[in-house]
Amino acid sequence: SRLIEAGIIDEAKVKEIDKAARAEADEAAKFADQSPFPPVEEITRDVYWEEDHPEEKVSQGRIFFEDPPAEG
Question: Which of 26, 47, 57, 70 could lock onto 62 through a cystine, CB 3.0 to 4.6 A?
């Protein structure tokens, strides 16, 4: 890696970071697996669509694929 070649980090530190990142990801996955699904009415909450579709955004993020934006 460039960081190792530049002397910024050594292989032991890379392994330490990798181990910590994997542990954090495993913990997050375990939490997600053990968590209940959200209620259906919450599924569109905090879902936003703006990258490829510049239409006016809606506060609850209800736009999926070719659905028209919600009035409001």
Answer: 70
